[in-house]
């Protein structure tokens, strides 16, 4: 007897039907030599902090960092009954082996493995790895079961991800909540840098200053031509006056045939983005609709990061496309070629191929589907037919003209072959909310260089520079996917270095909204005051998209077997230890959010106002008062850098509180030795604060470097 464990009941029922396990038990199905049971999502989770020590039930800075060793796990109370069912089934004497049939990805592996280990099971495990719930795919998967050990690295990466999220969430949240006077400041490994993206965008919008510009537009025989931009309306008006009724000489004419290749197939992120643009769906809604389609055998596995198919799928594409086209009202009358080679690339498919509708679509009454599921299915189907279609080709003509001593330009477009865009336009025509279209470029008349035309009219057009747009789910998903891509220019596969994964990004956005850090206003995602305040006090180690993307890449290295889980976790622990150590000099009593939202380090010795931390210095908030206070401790002060020491938050806090701080390991540039001394602050009221050294005559100097 073999025990099959699925991720949820609906998947277990689909597997039972194929395997012939028809007898229902309490929490499982049985028959045909099979037992089929299920998890209900996560049954097991990492234990809370107070499970390690009762004192952690209270939040104290002195207890940080909390670094569990060994880690403990617990069964979720709401699913304890199903956990006990699985435990009983695993230990049945007639069960000789288990088949992990949870979702074929990082989280699915974690769900099964934690349950397996907490149940104390040691029986051999095989892995069912499929990308479709169609009966043929299920049968093929069971015919080709894989050794569960092949996925040990996947499990290791999943567990590292869970532990890292626990460590950063527990320690970061407790650190900043205790520092900032009990105000709960939730911190998350991916959540915080994502919130930072939103806060930084809003700051850029708030700081944007619109600049007007002007162009002159000529009315010529059959087309219009525009000048370059003018900052002055007067200058533009002067050119307009000088052009009306005057000759316009054609200087250059160029014509190029251009090709717009078909779009690639959808992975989860690009499908979520498109669904947000066309239907206003949130990322989570799209994932939920797609998951439902997957379980109904109408779409392939949703949580994929690939936009290609494998070579073995090429032969079946023509029949799949033909059956899909026949079932779509907007595609039935179109001539649709199938260029399979355009979507095949084994090197760009890892765990799962791109999202596809399945052959079941043609056998299903699609009118009975909920509207959300139907829209997502049609979107995936239309993209498949576009992706294997012919290129869109057109001729683009560009001309420049001289009139009134200025250069004018115009462009025109003549379509040669609509190609794949014909199907896209047919699909868009069925939508209630039509997508925005680019301004059309009508064909230009036949023109030759040196030809003289007459400017029948001219007008001044006013425009303005635009601020960055508020984030939508579409643009935020893109920013998360490509976060700090420029920082990875030397690495291969740059696009995959981002915040989170396709499977987790929707959940991150939803958590930010539920936590009150982000709000939805129509299609826009905006940081709340609470969210903006949080980001103002977060250090780069927690809010930097680049650093978080680097951690995501290291998780990928664990999954590939290139980095040990121990090394990954050691890096997370070291980062947290260093972070918490950096706040030792900032007492709970003095730590507060200033009016500017910055960290208060101490009190200004000149005027008594708060000294806060900036990017380059610790400075007095009275810098813009009347009279202004210019007190500042500069982080790159030569006194400290020359001694190879940093003016840290801890050092600054001690100087402000006591006027002095004991330091070890100071470097002497003259003698090349290290020594210990007390640094004394001497503030004379000048622009730069002075420092001097005091030595304890009993303390010997250290020799060498």
The CATH C-level name of the largest domain is Mainly Alpha
CATH architecture identity of the largest domain: Orthogonal Bundle
Name of the CATH superfamily of the largest domain: Topoisomerase I, domain 2
Write down the Rg: 32 Å
Named CATH topology of the largest domain: Topoisomerase I, domain 2
What's the average pLDDT? Answer: 90
Main sheet?
7 strands, mixed
Structural write-up:
The chain has 705 residues and is an alpha+beta fold. It has five domains: 2-144, Rossmann fold, CATH 3.40.50.140; 161-206 and 470-581, Topoisomerase I, domain 2; 212-261 and 393-464, Topoisomerase I, domain 3, CATH 2.70.20.10; 268-390, Topoisomerase I, domain 4; 600-694, no CATH class. Helices cover 34% and strands 20% of the residues. The strands form six sheets. The chain has a seven-stranded mixed sheet, sandwiched between helices. A seven-stranded antiparallel sheet has the order 15-12-13-14-11-10-16, with helices on one face. Helix 5 packs antiparallel against helix 17 (545-559). The longest helix has 28 residues, at 152-179. It is flat and about 95 Å long. Mean pLDDT is 90; it is low at 487-496 and 588-592.
